[in-house]
Specification:
By secondary structure, the chain is of the alpha/beta class. The chain is globular and about 35 Å long.
Length: 116
């Protein structure tokens, strides 16, 4: 099964992006699933490498690393990155800059699309 997860919310402040990554991670560990994650809007901040957080907080950058480790593709909206001054050199290994055209292709590819 091919599943696309799209996250739009800021990395911290609400738990929407956290829950998007939790679901994507759980799906990626399942047999016969192909998971892709697309970050757009404020969610592109989830992919910032080297996040420093107080003890007890979840690390979205590490969660993204786990997704990549399990074979998932992680893409970030390039327009959204530009609007927030995020350079591709600042994001976690395995994630990459993308576009609305690729999100369109991924949407048509997917059997299921889940948005947060």
């Amino acid at each position: 099964m091919k599943i696309l997860v799209v996250a739009n919310d800021a990395p911290y402040g609400t738990e929407r992006s956290y829950n998007a990554l939790r679901l994507a991670g759980s799906l990626a560990k399942r047999e016969q699933t192909d998971v892709r994650l697309f970050l757009m809007g404020d969610a592109v901040g989830c992919a910032m490498a080297g996040q420093v957080l107080p003890n007890g907080y979840y690390h979205l950058d590490r969660m993204l690393g786990s997704l990549v480790h399990h074979g998932s593709e992680v893409a970030l909206c390039g327009t959204c990155m530009d609007a927030r001054g995020i350079d591709e050199s600042e994001i976690v290994a395995g994630a990459r800059r993308s576009s609305l055209d690729e999100l369109t292709d991924w949407t048509l590819w997917a059997d299921h699309v889940v948005t947060f």
